[in-house]
Write a structure and sequence with these properties.
This protein is α/β, with parallel strands linked by helices. The protein has a single domain, classed as Aldolase class I (TIM Barrel), CATH 3.20.20.70. Helices cover 44% and strands 15% of the residues. It contains 12 helices and 13 strands. β1 and β2 (11-13) form a beta hairpin.
């Protein structure tokens, strides 16, 4: 019988399919459905700084205009300890109810929020902590190195506040993604998720208002993750999980062959329901049996660049094919 057990960021998971941070994992109902349909782990819907601070701002608005200034400072400090209570309650209930690992996820702006809330998530029982870092580099005076240092600073601060396994969910827009991963690896990050899919912006031509762009990923979107995981898998002592565009068992298996011990799924669950998790697992197990593999570890990373007899193909594949017609 094929064994699907794997691990991500040092956390044992019963199979490589992790339901990623989204509305799918924002309620106990959704979390139960994910677990009941076979998910190896779940990542709670990201908690945004705006959610934490919202409750504080409401209390500040209720303060009398003549209230002592220390009252305002007190509420702001308390926000770091009691802010996001619903999120902490959901995490606690999930840990008490589910038999699979539960990763928390946060997305903040101010450094204080990153660090202080991380400690609360550890106390609430999270198995790991995903830092959902999305910085919009729109300042022409800010260098790429400065942006990367901001990311490293966030990780350093969070690491000083928690012993949880830290994973970082990155976007693909870096000058040198390998250098960023090296910086994260040196900071005791246990896992990197490649890649984050940020919300897209569009314009409604009738109302002349902003509107969301395409919400869901396409099945072809996993190619970028596949290539970079195949390149980086053997470079660092940490795990690279694939995200964005994994809609079926075949894409998941390809990412594992490239070196990913886990794949994060989201859009396919929205489109096909939670039952797609079980179908993907059944198809993965059938493929493993057909190939004679009894465990994920037997083929994970089998087709990464370092294991290849033609490593240049991983970097210059399209260029070479265009020039020579090599298949």
């Amino acid at each position: 019988m094929a064994e699907l057990i794997s691990s991500f960021a040092g956390v044992r998971i019963r199979n490589p399919l992790i339901v990623s941070s989204s509305s799918l994992t924002g309620t106990m109902s959704g979390l139960r459905k994910a677990a009941d349909n076979g998910a190896g782990a779940v990542v709670l819907k990201s908690l945004f700084e705006e959610q934490i601070s919202h409750g504080v701002n409401q209390e500040l608005a209720r303060l009398d205009s003549n209230a002592h200034t220390e009252a305002s400072d007190y509420l702001k400090q308390m926000g770091m300890h009691v802010g996001g209570k619903e999120y902490l309650d959901l995490l606690t209930e999930a840990k008490n109810t589910l038999e699979i690992p539960v990763f928390a996820s946060i997305n903040c702006i101010g450094l204080n929020w990153w660090s202080e809330f991380s400690a609360q998530l550890e106390n609430a029982g999270a198995d790991g902590l995903e830092l959902n870092i999305g910085l919009l580099p729109r300042n022409p005076a800010e260098t790429s190195a400065a942006i990367e240092e901001k990311i490293f600073g966030i990780v350093d601060l969070v690491r000083s506040k928690t012993k949880l396994p830290i994973t970082v969910k990155l976007g693909a827009a870096f000058t040198n993604i390998a250098a960023v991963c090296a910086g994260l690896a040196s900071r005791d990050v246990k896992g990197i998720v490649l890649f984050n899919r940020f919300y897209q912006l569009d314009i409604n031509l009738d109302s002349l208002q902003l509107q969301p762009g395409v919400v869901f990923s396409n099945p072809q979107d996993y190619y970028l993750s596949l290539r970079w995981i195949s390149l980086l898998h053997c470079e660092f002592v940490l795990d690279f999980a694939a995200a964005t565009g994994i809609h079926d068992a075949q894409a998941a298996l390809r990412c594992i062959l490239a070196g990913a011990p886990a794949v994060l799924i989201c859009s396919t669950v929205y489109k096909n329901g939670y039952g797609v998790i079980r179908r993907m697992l059944d198809e993965m197990e059938a493929w493993m049996k057909g190939k004679g593999y009894s465990a994920i570890s037997e083929f994970k990373g089998l087709l990464c660049q370092q294991e290849s007899e033609t490593p240049a193909a991983y970097e210059r594949l399209q260029y070479i094919k265009a020039l020579t017609g090599i298949n």
